Amino acid sequence: MTLVQMQQRPANAPVAPRTVDDVMEAAGPQVCDDMTVEVALAVMASARADHLLVCDEDGLCTGLVTQSQLAAIRDSAAYTDRVRLRAVLGDRGPFASPATTMAEADHAMRYRRLDALPVVDEQGSALGVLALAR
């Protein structure tokens, strides 16, 4: 048996809050916003991913789509095989920065009922995804 010496932290020592950067996953598959819903579902299936990051023609992250979102759109009465991801996403966001605290991200995800949140840098490029634990 090996003994490990540990130091106790003083009770009044400040604890640095954990940030999104500490726990985010790699960005994973990224697709362009001019892709159709049908093709995006195929990409998602082949990548065995639950979500895709969506980028514009400049490579900036415009949002995230999930398999359940796309399946619901495909199954709707108004669906055609020409529906593009940019039409599904609407407004940009929401996003987190790597410096966002986990408490802030947790609150935002619960408030908006999100399973995953894109993490972007100052320019808007995707760095990763913050996903709820399964």
From TrEMBL:
State the InterPro entries in the record. Answer: CBS_dom, CBS_dom_sf, Diverse_CBS-Domain
Sorted keywords for this record are: CBS domain
Q: Can you give the residue ranges of the CBS domain?
A: 23-71, 95-130
Pfam families xref list:
CBS
Taxonomically, the superkingdom here is: Bacteria
**This protein is called what?**
CBS domain-containing protein
Q: Which organism is it from?
A: Streptomyces subrutilus
